[in-house]
Amino acid sequence: MPEPKVRKLLTVVEDVYHEGGTPVETPLKRGAILAVIENPFAGSYHEKIDGFMKDLEPLGLSMANKLVEALGGRDKIEGYGKGAIVGQGGELEHGALWHVPGGYAMRGALGDAKAIVPSTKKVGGPGARLDVPVTHINASYVRSHFDAMEVGLADAPRADEIVVALVMTTGSRIHARVGGLRAEDIKGEDGLR
């Protein structure tokens, strides 16, 4: 397969100072990078599609590195997630092609991240929104880092496109206080605890 054809990239970073409690001095940063790419499988059923994952790897790594830079460097990143919105000429399985290249790209950009990268996908038209789940990069059970970021673009995906997304955060939810495993107590042995 040829390399992905990118129509546009969007990078967005938000600073969260409070969620109703006392504002914090250093805000939580949530960032997302989205690429709108041509879906080479749109319009008809294709039995063999998994080769496209390899073609997506360079795009994934480039996106991950840009997002790390936008958030201030890899030592700042504590949470991550990924997702895809497939245009209506495609199928949900085309969004699943982003699992490997998106996840490994973030792990590669961050170094030794151990936790599985949470993911979501759907089929939708231009303007569709997607809530991308986020967990801690080294331990999926760190409850303070369970989060999500809504992503989307007004003009994508068109019927023959896929929007692929990466999300990263610099810490826990602001005012996290529901208990559970804390980031400072991570053992880092299995990506869970």
From TrEMBL:
Superkingdom of the source? Bacteria
Pfam families reported for this sequence: AA_synth
* Protein name as annotated: Amino acid synthesis family protein
